[in-house]
């Protein structure tokens, strides 16, 4: 608000400076040099006030930026605080001993499963493997019994016979 008020003050001063300059020219034309000189001194003083006002505005803007940045920092710190509290609650729920116990149980379960896998994979001996392969070959040979191949030669031309008896061939129907 102060910045806005200072900006309005600057506008009023700037407009006043232009009027006083025009008035000083008029006084010089009218031959009133001392009054013009007094008016120019007043104008110079107002210009200095304008510079001071600009410095004050600059200081206010810097302060506003600092305040805004501090507010952002406060939000970050509050977020860190909440995150830290959340982590502490999670650590209370799950202690290091609990995590170590869970990891140990998981490793035991993995080891147990590995032992089961080894027992299942290692339960067959080489003789069992050979017997399984022989049985597989025997089953495969049973399935491969094919019908006998005819010994007579195949005819050169296949006779055209309709699949349904007493039905004319399609070529004959189209021709009539």
From TrEMBL:
Residues 143-176 are annotated as: Disordered. InterPro entries: Snf7_fam. It holds the Pfam family Snf7. It comes from the Eukaryota. Keywords: Coiled coil, Endosome, Membrane, Protein transport, Transport. Residues 43-70 form a coiled coil. GO terms for biological process: late endosome to vacuole transport via multivesicular body sorting pathway; protein transport; vesicle budding from membrane. GO terms for cellular component: ESCRT III complex; multivesicular body. It is found in: Endosome membrane. Its main location: membrane. Belongs to the SNF7 family. This is CHMP6 protein. The gene is Chmp6.
């Amino acid at each position: 608000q102060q910045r806005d008020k200072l900006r309005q003050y600057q506008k009023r001063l700037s407009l006043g400076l232009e009027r006083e300059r025009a008035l000083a020219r008029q006084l010089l034309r009218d031959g009133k040099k001392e009054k013009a000189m007094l008016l120019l001194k007043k104008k110079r003083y107002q210009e200095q006030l304008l510079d001071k006002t600009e410095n004050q505005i600059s200081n206010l803007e810097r302060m506003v930026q600092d305040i805004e940045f501090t507010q952002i920092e406060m939000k970050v710190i509050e977020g860190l605080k909440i995150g830290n509290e959340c982590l502490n609650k999670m650590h209370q729920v799950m202690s290091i001993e609990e995590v170590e116990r869970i990891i140990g149980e998981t490793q035991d379960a993995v080891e147990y499963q590995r032992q089961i896998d080894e027992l299942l994979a290692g339960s067959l001996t080489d003789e069992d493997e050979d017997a399984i392969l022989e049985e597989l070959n025997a089953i495969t040979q049973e399935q491969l019994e094919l019908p006998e191949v005819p010994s007579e030669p195949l005819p050169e031309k296949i006779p055209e016979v309709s699949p349904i008896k007493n039905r004319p061939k399609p070529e004959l129907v189209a021709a009539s």
